[in-house]
Amino acid sequence: QLQLVESGGGLVQPGGSLRLSCAASGFSLVHYAIVWFRQAPGKEREGVSSISSTGSSTNYANSVKGRFTISKDNTKNTVYLQLHSLNPEDTFVYYCAAAYGSSWYYQHPSLTEWAQYDYWGQGAQVTVSS
What we know:
Blueprint: E1 3-7, E2 10-12, E3 18-25, E4 32-39, E5 46-51, E6 58-60, E7 68-73, E8 78-83, E9 92-100, H1 104-107, E10 119-120, E11 124-128
């Protein structure tokens, strides 16, 4: 089955850290750019971070810049989102999405624009609370 599987969510105290993983099953991420989104119930999703297919280029929303780090390990067929200095306002379901093409990342520089994706993960809940 072709899918993205997220893991690593959970409950963390303010100021804490988590690492989310987005692993591809049934296909290779080598040619895919990845975007991480987050969404609260009944709210619009927010683009958080993106990474090019090679992993050489990254982009972050202003709300997470300097606190979150995206990385891609094509040998493990996995993309990671490292979350640091978490606060309650970071409480969301986090989703990863894959878009095919080595040029996709450069054709979609904005995290706020709408785009089509080939695969979506099921979501990972991150709750920041004391």
